[in-house]
Amino acid sequence: xxxxxxxxxxxxxxxxxxxxxxxxxxxxxxxxxxxxxxxxxxxxxxxxxxxxxxxxxxxxxxxxxxxxxxxxxxxxxxxxxxxxxxxxxxxxxxxxxxxxxxxxxxxxxxxxxxxxxxxxxxxxxxxxxxxxxxxxxxxxxxxxxxxxxxxxxxxxxxxxxxxxxxxxxxxxxxxxxxxxxxxxxxxxxxxxxxxxxxxxxxxxxxxxxxxxxxxxxxxxxxxxxxxxxxxxxxxxxxxxxxxxxxxxxxxxxxxxxxxxxxxxxxxxxxxxxxxxxxxxxxxxxxxxxxxxxxxxxxxxxxxxxxxxxxxxxxxxxxxxxxxxxxxxxxxxxxxxxxxxxxxxxxxxxxxxxxxxxxxxxxxxxxxxxxxxxxxxxxxxxxxxxxxxxxxxxxxxxxxxxxxxxxxxxxxxxxxxxxxxxxxxxxxxxxxxxxxxxxxxxxxxxxxxxxxxxxxxxxxxxxxxxxxxx
Length: 469
Ligand SMILES: [Cu+2]
Description:
- The chain contains five helices and 23 strands.
- By secondary structure, the chain is mostly beta strands.
């Protein structure tokens, strides 16, 4: 195999920066080996073996793409292609992604690195890659038609630029964008600082993931790409709870979590048991005097947020999107509320016709999480997941931060469920119950109650059903 240097010697090109016109010649040299991933597991961090050292990130239910160093250039090979992604155990989706998975692998480089990314298109239509947030030559920005010709199926294009500023970035197509992102084409990019950076702290654990969403009808496999808002799978790195791995850290670790949003709505990300500060966006690290404590950070569409905290409380702490519909899996939204509706009479009549008919929802929806109802093929229960004390009743954008005293540095394995020390868990009151005393002036000072409060009872009738009295 001809080395790149020999190749250019033959061409009469000497080292130094490549002109854009010579990029296609580089593509003719041997491509970096294609590395593909067939599992949706969280892969341990990829410690750099060449180039400048850094503390690598952990991609939630994902992996980092290995590179090869060639004449001081970090070369990566991304292949855009149809993939099968397990959204959670029991459900797979036919997506488009990179190198075997959606999202594609994380690319990690160091500030100042010259990076060359070969992009091979194995999709049935053309594509491009836009390097969201990067400083780069205009012709490398990846907007099809504007900055370059789209990459036709079967072709390989080369992107090359210097990773000029450290931070949290992502990549995605800028060609038939609505379809290709709805199909799962996206990936994470982290540029580590070259030297000690005044605004970038060293951390013990550094996690990253993208927020994405799919609309896959129960029983089918391919997302409906024309859906704008009413998605039924709210995912992190194309995984839905209980398919999302936990964030496993050691007590006292300084933890960074980097999140990018490529859905069609905002996601207020909420962490239990700790306060964090927002230390960076895709625009760079935030000035220190702009940081204040939060327990929820809202991430708008197309934004990236970096949060940091000290994991100093042991336990299993929920970490989730605070939109309660985003911690649900496939569900219908046009279902009437049945709370308080006594439809025993109706149920009896229906059971005569449909023996398996079940009355649900008249005391709330928790039944849905406790009961394993028969589902159509290839979908996920709306609320599910078993915790140490029963059904977690969650889905979608939900996971757990597991803080443990004995989690070893560098160990990302799931330590199992937390065992609360005796006397530190909510418990059932078994003493006597007293009737609650009524507030005399119901209505408050401004609008005191007139006369004695009247007990109001509402009788709810289902339309068309008139119980006999
Ligand atoms: Cu959300």
